[in-house]
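Throughout our pipeline, every protein is held as a single compact record rather than as scattered files. The record that follows is passed on verbatim for readers who wish to inspect the format:
___
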Amino acid sequence: MGKNTKKKKKTTTIRSELKNGGLLLAELIASFDGKTNPIRCFTSDQILKATENFSETQIISSWGYFTWYRGVIEDRPVSIKKWSNQNLSSFTEAYRDISVSSQMSGHKNSLKLLGCCLDFELPSLVCEYTVHGPLNRDGGVSSGEPLPWRVRLKIAKEIASSVAYLHTAFPETIIHRNINPTNIFVDENWTAKLSDFWFCVAIPEGEVYVEDDVKGVIGFVDPDYYWTMKVTEKVDVYSFGVVMLVLLSGRAAVFNGGPGEAPMSLNDHVSEVMERGGFEEVVDREVWSVSDGDELVVRKSQVEAFLRLALRCVRYKNEDPVSGMIEVAKELKLIEKLS
């Protein structure tokens, strides 16, 4: 057997044994023009030990497509993401999650990917651990502790920075398509971290949109995207605007109305309130928690500017739409400086 034949056979064997690794590498190369970050591989034994065999007692959150578990690997607390084989529509999405996470890990407001495990049918992600975990649907934390206004504003500012980076830092514009509170993790310093990049799609260089099936969570999907299936930066801008409304109101994007009433869209609720000429009804009471009158004046200025920016993101009536996430991030920094 010739030298080249032996080499070919060896390569084929490696590809067979590391099928998942090959799929991951292909996704990395396709997504980022061959520019990849080193990704550490953990064993299934490490993952099972860390999660106590994926014990319910270790669950951080579960959303149907995947479950987040807390664990400890090599004396370091971690968050481990396990996919649900039954619900995932495409295995490629699991690999895309790793590839984009690896590229975003250098941004301080992205959940840092520490590595993955390729021993299972679908790869598990191993990420940094955050004390407060992901936000819940109404923008709060699992402890039920109401978030102060400054924290809500900080979360919005930091996630805007992360999304703007996703849109601009790579050869092609990457669109998240799934920005919602449950994909935002918060650490012990109330630093916000964007996660869950599995719905990401790239807009080719020189193009302004790409057509694809509609992805996302009800209440956060841009209506134009829903009807045209055209993915643009506006898809993320719209979703982020809804996240801002959630943070401001303390309500989920779709919430239950009064007794006997059908579930209501937060956007519709905000529209109704704005039609009546006020905005205080939109705002969570905790937002107005201040110590003196001067602080209340500043708070009102911040809240009004925050709401106006959110309405521009969701393209509410006569509000001038924002140009993109870079503008949103800059505006939020200015709003924060009003304090």
In short: The longest helix spans residues 293-313.
